[in-house]
RNA sequence: CGGGGCAUAGCGCAGCCUGGUAGCGCGUCUGCUUUGGGAGCAGAAGGUCGGGGGUUCGAAUCCCUCUGCCCCGACCA
């Protein structure tokens, strides 16, 4: 590709509303343009990256024997009524009606459609197991699209669905997909981690997420450095403390703590470590009853996914309003505690293991100190409702947990028979019995991977593409080509030769100053750049540099192929 | 959806408070010079100041309203 024929200009400044680095760089590099909130056009360079990712995904899916198909993006509401999700999915489902006033939606996912295919086509256990996949544009009407293409409303996703005669077969395919996903992300050249995950709204029991590791990731993942354990923090169980504290015998006492309404302020005002304080949060009850109290150690964070599974807690999880807290405790949220509460109370294991702790007195401006379970208030049932922290032992007993940020780019589920039962997707087994097929569901966010790759791989000059998904592999930069025939000829020759040899190569034949070419080459993140100048021609050398290198290398022209092979390896 | 904010040239912004000529940087176009890290000089194009309504002799500026967008929270590949 000749840069002189690419009409998309790079930009020095990113639009003010681009918040994360991948969004800024994708805009500046001319990969994408915004059409509406959460809806983006893919320009030539961006599309090439998307296609590279899709190709890797397709090759690895095909290798497992999965069959590609293409399902409609527009789906009839009737199908969603059958699965029950028309009412359950919520406003994220983009709904509309056609001219006959029939309900339709733009597919956010394709369980219904694929299950409809399955119930029509699959009759016998002899056809199983089978896995179908597609690469399709999806639409989810996110409440708040942001971060460019990373959390857009319209996006490209690879989704696969497997059908089985029994659970062991599902287990087997699940593992095959797990391995395929591992190969896919290895091939992209990104640092990633597979973790155990909550299966959320899609349903089902077992699931794993694949995360691209990046500090800007929206998810926290916990993993053992020196073991195999890895899970989304949402899911990772926090073990009860090994030891329970014993009290000093000091009597419970009410202390004035004017203005201290946060753990930090209370701990400061009382001269107690946050871990010796207790915080009490109130969430809405499932049955419109009094709010549910949740008691946590001061230095711990509430885990919403764990909490919402507790009996009596409203789903989705909602914090109780100040008025509800006031009527449940007689105090404002900053001064509440578990002592003397009449409503439902859950206490985290760690908080339950404390003795002589501090908590709100349920009287504005006062806290209690030297509080002890059993003596000062009944010892309630203790549960796991907090996020694990780095440094804690892994739940499987092997190693110590670290916490890292991740961007979720893949998610695999065992769905079970949720959809096949609802939609009547059954086959006959070898005894002639009708069986609702257990299903698996496996997604990869194709467009999100492009953004995640940038979040993980960039520097102050721009993008640093892993070579496997770079839009082009090599940039040839001729210097002073307007004046130097030698430079022009050498560049053209090299461009033709590398292209003939199967490389994806760009030639910056624009009549601009060298600094502009260097800067654009770095912004675009092309893995290898080759500079052609009179200096090198005179010395009989080629100047090469990898995008991550800090210095140029001068090599003999006939070493170039070796150099490229090495630089662009796997 | 709740809370906060923004909307002026392709991009980044000033002007608004205190009403009267629409401006700066980058980018774009022309010419000359320059050519190893986002060049210099000279010139030029480009705006219904988000839409509608109102107040006023006069509105980018004040008021009302609509729309779009962004940020903070609960959801997801």
Task: Give an overview in words.
Helices cover 27% and strands 26% of the residues. The two termini are 23 Å apart. The chain folds into three domains: 16-236 and 402-455, 2-Layer Sandwich (BirA Bifunctional Protein, domain 2), CATH 3.30.930.10; 253-383, YbaK protein (Alpha-Beta Complex); 472-567, Anticodon-binding domain (Rossmann fold, 3-Layer(aba) Sandwich). The chain contains 16 helices and 30 strands. Strand 24 (458-459) and strand 25 form a beta hairpin. The model has no long low-confidence stretch (mean pLDDT 92). It is of the alpha+beta class. Strands 3, 7, 8, 9, 10, 11, 12, 20 and 23 form a nine-stranded mixed sheet that branches. A five-stranded mixed sheet has the order 27-26-28-29-30, sandwiched between helices. The structure holds one RNA strand of 77 nucleotides.
List keywords for this structure.
30 strands, 27% helix, globular, alpha+beta, single chain, 9-stranded mixed sheet, RNA-binding, Rossmann fold, 26% strand, 3 domains, 570 residues, BirA Bifunctional Protein, domain 2
């Amino acid at each position: 590709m000749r840069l002189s024929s690419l009409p998309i200009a790079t930009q020095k400044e990113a639009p003010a509303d681009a918040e994360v680095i991948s969004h800024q760089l994708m805009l500046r590099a001319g990969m994408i343009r915004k059409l509406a909130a959460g809806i983006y056009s893919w320009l030539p360079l961006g599309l090439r990256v998307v296609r590279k990712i899709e190709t890797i995904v397709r090759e690895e899916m095909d290798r497992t024997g999965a069959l590609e198909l293409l399902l409609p993006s527009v789906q009839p509401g009737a199908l969603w009524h059958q699965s029950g999700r028309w009412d359950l999915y919520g406003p994220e489902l983009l709904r509309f009606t056609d001219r006959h006033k029939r309900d339709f939606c733009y597919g956010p996912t394709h369980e219904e459609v694929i299950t409809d295919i399955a119930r029509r086509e699959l009759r016998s256990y002899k056809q199983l197991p089978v896995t179908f996949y597609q690469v399709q544009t999806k639409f989810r009407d996110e409440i708040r699209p942001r971060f460019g293409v990373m959390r857009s409303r319209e996006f490209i996703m690879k989704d696969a669905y497997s059908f089985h005669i029994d659970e062991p077969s599902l287990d087997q395919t699940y593992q095959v997909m797990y391995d395929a996903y591992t190969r896919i992300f290895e091939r992209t050249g990104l640092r990633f981690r597979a973790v155990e995950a909550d299966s959320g709204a899609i349903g089902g029991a077992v699931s794993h997420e694949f995360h691209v590791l990046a500090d800007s990731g929206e998810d926290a993942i916990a993993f053992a450095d020196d073991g195999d354990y890895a899970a989304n923090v949402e899911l990772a169980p926090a073990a009860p403390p090994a030891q329970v504290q014993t009290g000093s015998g000091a009597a419970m006492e009410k202390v004035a703590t004017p203005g201290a309404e946060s753990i930090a302020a209370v701990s400061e005002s009382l001269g107690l470590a946050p871990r010796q304080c207790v915080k009490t949060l109130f969430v809405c009850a499932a049955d419109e009853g009094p709010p549910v109290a949740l008691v946590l150690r001061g230095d711990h964070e509430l885990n919403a996914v764990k909490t919402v599974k507790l009996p009596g807690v409203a789903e989705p999880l909602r914090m109780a309003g100040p008025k509800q807290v006031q009527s449940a405790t007689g105090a404002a949220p900053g001064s509440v505690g578990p002592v003397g509460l009449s409503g439902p109370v859950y206490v985290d294991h760690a908080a339950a293991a404390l003795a002589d702790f501090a908590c709100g007195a349920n009287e504005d401006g006062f806290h209690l100190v030297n509080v002890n379970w059993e003596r000062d208030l009944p010892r309630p049932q203790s549960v796991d409702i907090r996020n694990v922290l780095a440094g804690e032992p892994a739940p499987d007993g092997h190693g110590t947990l670290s916490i890292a940020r991740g961007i979720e780019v893949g998610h695999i589920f065992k769905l079970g028979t949720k959809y096949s039962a609802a939609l009547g997707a059954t086959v006959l087994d070898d005894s002639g019995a009708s069986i609702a097929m257990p299903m698996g569901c496996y997604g990869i966010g194709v467009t999100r991977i492009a953004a995640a790759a940038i979040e993980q791989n960039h520097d102050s000059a721009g993008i640093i593409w892993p070579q496997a998904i770079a839009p082009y592999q090599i940039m040839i930069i001729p210097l002073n080509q307007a004046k130097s025939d030698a430079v022009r000829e050498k560049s053209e020759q090299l461009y033709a030769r590398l292209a003939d040899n199967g490389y994806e190569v760009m030639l910056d034949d624009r009549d601009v100053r060298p600094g502009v070419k260097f800067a654009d080459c770095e912004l675009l993140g092309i893995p290898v750049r080759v500079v052609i100048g009179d200096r090198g021609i005179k010395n009989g050398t080629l100047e090469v540099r990898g995008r991550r290198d800090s210095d140029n290398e001068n090599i003999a022209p006939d070493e170039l192929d070796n150099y490229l092979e090495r630089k662009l390896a796997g």
